[in-house]
Amino acid sequence: MKTKKVEIKVEQGIHARRAAYITKISNRYNCSIYFRRNDLQVNAKSIIGIMMLALAKACIVEVTTDGVDEEIALEEISQILVSNFPNEEML
Fold first, then answer.
1. pLDDT digits (tens, 9 = 90+) for 47-85
2. Which domains does the chain have, with CATH numbers?
3. Is residue 18 classed exposed, middle or buried when 0-12, 13-18 and 19+ CB atoms within 10 A define those classes?
4. Which residues contact 55 (CB under 8 A, 6 or more apart)?
């Protein structure tokens, strides 16, 4: 099991399109992926769960992965939470 605290650095926060992208990427991995903010923990493979966290810029989220490819999943998902993509409108 791997855990990492990540500060949301995306200007728009985690909006619906980015949440959908996160769930798409999360479902590629053979491991459990959870986000925790305050007392609420959600499955990162669920767009509704991610949206429930209301992750605005500067929020801190704890990302936990557990399974076969937990390390690479943790790094890729963490990167999505902090990076503005060149084609942000694509998300």
1. 999 999 999 999 999 999 999 999 999 999 999 999 876
2. 2-84 (3.30.1340.10)
3. buried
4. 8, 13, 14, 35, 37, 61, 81
CB 61 within 8 A of CB 36: yes
- Global pTM? 0.89
Could you give the residue numbers annotated as active site? 15
For residue 68, give Cα distances in angstroms to 20, 31, 32, 38, 54: 23, 6, 9, 27, 29
**Pair of tokens at residue 43:** 């499955």
Q: How far is CA 47 from the centre of its chain?
A: 10
Give per-residue burial for 43-70: e unless 16+ CB within 10 Å, then b: ebbbbebbeebebeeebebebbbeeeeb
- Taking the C-alpha atoms of residue 18 and residue 30, their distance in angstroms, rounded to an integer, is 21
